[in-house]
Amino acid sequence: MKETYITTNSQALTESDSPVLEIWGPTSLKGEVRISGAKNSALAIMAGTLLCSDDCRISNVPSLMDVGRMVQILAALGVKINRKQDTLEINATEIGQTQAPYDLVSQLRASFFVIGPLLARLGVARVPLPGGCAIGARPVDLHVRGLQAMGAEVTIEHGIVHAYVKGSSRRLKGASIYLDYPSVGATETIMMAATLAEGETTIGNAAQEPEVEDLANFCRSMGAKIRGAGTNTIIVSGVERLHSTDYPIIPDRIEAGTFLVAGAITHSPISLYPVIPEHLSPVIAKLKEVGCNVILEDYKRLRLVPGELRATDIETLPYPGFPTDMQAQFMALLTKSEGNSMVTETVFENRLRHVAELQRMGADIKVKGNVAVVKGVPFLSGAPVMATDLRASAALVLAGLAARGKTVVQGLHHLDRGYENIEDKLRQLGANLQRV
Ligand code: EPZ
Prior knowledge:
Strand order of the largest sheet: 21-22-1-23
Bound molecules: ligand EPZ
Number of strands: 23
Number of domains: 2
Radius of gyration: 22 Å
Shape: elongated
């Protein structure tokens, strides 16, 4: 784990003395890449261990900056954590603190996921508001309303969300909750809180993302009673307590999607392993529309067959719609596709910041509100570019692989948040790049 990058204030490292990634293109890739465990599952499941007063062993955990931060947050709450290769041994018997530290929470939005488990387990939780980030305001009103429906008193003072349950049992009560929007985070918070509540909870218009289902399977492996995860209606019957477990996390569908696009944008036949193909259905469908093919080699291995790239339209939606976390990478691909493509970002209000950087590389993109019209160009040119968020950084790396000449990507702390050893993996596929 790259501890060197976790500082008390990650902004301490100014852009000028931060490492940059130099990429020489155009390059062709070949071979097979190993896909790591899913970041967005790992973060929610790590928070979920707070529900259990026994040992939890979680394997296939990626080595990422965000995972490192969640480890620090759990440790600050008094949780014992030990990492061995890709496995975390976690024991949350003694939760000493019910307040998550601001300086850590402010660096990791997903840390807000601890509020549900802390409240369910202890009847009280104090978690700083995560605040907005580069891609949007990202409020937590749906999380809070869900917990209030289960009987929690919730107030927000000085930027801290105070939640507690009145009454002697201090237990949450089951409730019927209908989400205004199928928020991944709110679904996960409410589902985790409901596992130890009195009675039954129904979550209507729930998020159906594979990471939500993975979290539900993790909770069930500890004895939780959850039905319908992966559909738009989840039913949880609360239990008294949960027991120890040994749980492997699913492969990262967004990392897999990013490598599929790496193959497509460099016209390279590459394979990915392990993946869960159905998790990638919306991405594979669009890759076929732009002229590539994706072959299922065995139930866990995919092979990309490159093709002449043609334009298509993308609209990001909650799962099983096209994932917003693949929008930037796909836009990079469409900059080199024959014709005009329309990319509409409907999930986050500020997730087109990579457009300006792709334009530096010669892309022809016009933006109006949340819609970008991408006119394919014959080639991209290498240039110095700045990553503005996690998936934007991946898009710039992909564009750099296809561009003529040298691309220099700054803002790598974004990339390190969500991609495990991406440079080594790309080098193993034949890419010419280095971090300096
Ligand atoms: C999760 O974020 C992922 N993060 C995001 O991945 C992903 O983009 C997102 O789901 C959508 O798929 C993790 O799992 C750690 P949401 P989350 O709640 O839970 C609004 C990446 O690149 N909303 O489904 O925060 C919100 O503002 C990251 O790996 C409310 O209005 O996403 C947004 O517009 C980025 N009120 C929309 O819903 C709420 O209380 C979707 O947010 C909650 C959300």
